[in-house]
Amino acid sequence: MTGFGRRLAEAVSTRGPLCLGIDPHPELLRAWELSVDADGMRKFCDICVAAFDGFAVVKPQVAFFEAYGAAGYAVLEHTIAALREAKVLVLADAKRGDIGSTMAAYAQAWTGDSPLAADAVTASPYLGFGSLAPLFDTALAHGRGVFVLAATSNPEGRTVQRARVDGRSVAQAIVDAAAERNRAEPGAVGVVVGATLSDPPDVSALGGPVLVPGVGAQGGRPEALGGLGGATPGQLLPAVSREVLRAGPGVAALRAAAGAMRDAVAYLA
């Protein structure tokens, strides 16, 4: 399989720099007049897949599927397969992070040969960046990518992420460690940096993509993302969920909302 960095760059260049979220939150299921169960979630996801066909990246939020146990995971597997059939890159927003054999098992689940394996997965480095080594290695062996949490928008994250060690923030140390991994395989490791941050880490030397959640409903403005953290053209991947999803349940309306947001961030490509 072609490396993730190259596949992502090609998708962004032809389909635009936008990552669309699939977040089957109970409130959205009710707003779409769907049942709040695995069956309603499957219908929700099928609508999203139909509407997002032709976009670069789609990010299912794993937590909402986990809430329904085995039935929810079955819907997630179905959704990942359907997105792949539509030639859309899938980013599983699982935020996994552990150590040793447990991390290796997570790596197989999300970046190995499992039915859950996506084109890329989000991960938490806050048990130590080195603890993610099994995930990086498995992802690289299968041509997949990893997006590592670096600087998130939630206020609780500042205590850890903005703490300073040896003259730099923990968030910057994570970005720098990701850059080291990218020297072996450019673009294989990305980082997550919140759209609403006033003091993002420097990502100019990352050599990989930057997922930027929080655009739209969470307050991040599409027009204000240019150069975030010193990013270069084509590096930022704005992530939008509720701002688009609330346009549903009609496929045409949902697709139009996604298209409008893609147009709003097209200048970042």
From TrEMBL:
<dbReference type="InterPro" id="IPR011060">
    <property type="entry name" value="RibuloseP-bd_barrel"/>
</dbReference>
<dbReference type="InterPro" id="IPR013785">
    <property type="entry name" value="Aldolase_TIM"/>
</dbReference>
<keyword id="KW-0665">Pyrimidine biosynthesis</keyword>
<dbReference type="InterPro" id="IPR001754">
    <property type="entry name" value="OMPdeCOase_dom"/>
</dbReference>
<comment type="pathway">
    <text>Pyrimidine metabolism; UMP biosynthesis via de novo pathway; UMP from orotate: step 2/2.</text>
</comment>
<dbReference type="Pfam" id="PF00215">
    <property type="entry name" value="OMPdecase"/>
</dbReference>
<dbReference type="GO" id="GO:0044205">
    <property type="term" value="P:'de novo' UMP biosynthetic process"/>
</dbReference>
<dbReference type="GO" id="GO:0006207">
    <property type="term" value="P:'de novo' pyrimidine nucleobase biosynthetic process"/>
</dbReference>
<keyword id="KW-0456">Lyase</keyword>
<comment type="similarity">
    <text>Belongs to the OMP decarboxylase family. Type 2 subfamily.</text>
</comment>
<dbReference type="GO" id="GO:0004590">
    <property type="term" value="F:orotidine-5'-phosphate decarboxylase activity"/>
</dbReference>
<feature type="active site" description="Proton donor">
    <location>
        <position position="95"/>
    </location>
</feature>
<feature type="domain" description="Orotidine 5'-phosphate decarboxylase">
    <location>
        <begin position="17"/>
        <end position="257"/>
    </location>
</feature>
<protein>
    <recommendedName>
        <fullName>Orotidine 5'-phosphate decarboxylase</fullName>
        <ecNumber>4.1.1.23</ecNumber>
    </recommendedName>
</protein>
<dbReference type="InterPro" id="IPR011995">
    <property type="entry name" value="OMPdecase_type-2"/>
</dbReference>
<keyword id="KW-0210">Decarboxylase</keyword>
<dbReference type="InterPro" id="IPR018089">
    <property type="entry name" value="OMPdecase_AS"/>
</dbReference>
